[in-house]
Amino acid sequence: MTLGETYTRKGKVRLSLPLLGINWGGTLNPYLAIPLEDKVTVTVYSNSDLKDIAIDLQLQEPSEVLLNRLFQTMRTITKIYYEITNKHAEHPRFAIEAKTESTSYLPLVSLYASIASLSAYLIFKSTGYPLDLDELMEILQIAWKLEGVPENIRSLYSSLVLSSFKNKAILYRDSSEYLDLAEVNLKLGDKGTFIELYPDNLSDKLGPETASALTKLEGVALIEAATRLNMALAEHGETDVFAILYPYIKIENALYYVLYNIVPRMSRCKYVQSINGVVEEICIAK
Question: What does pTM read for this prediction?
Answer without folding.
Answer: 0.92
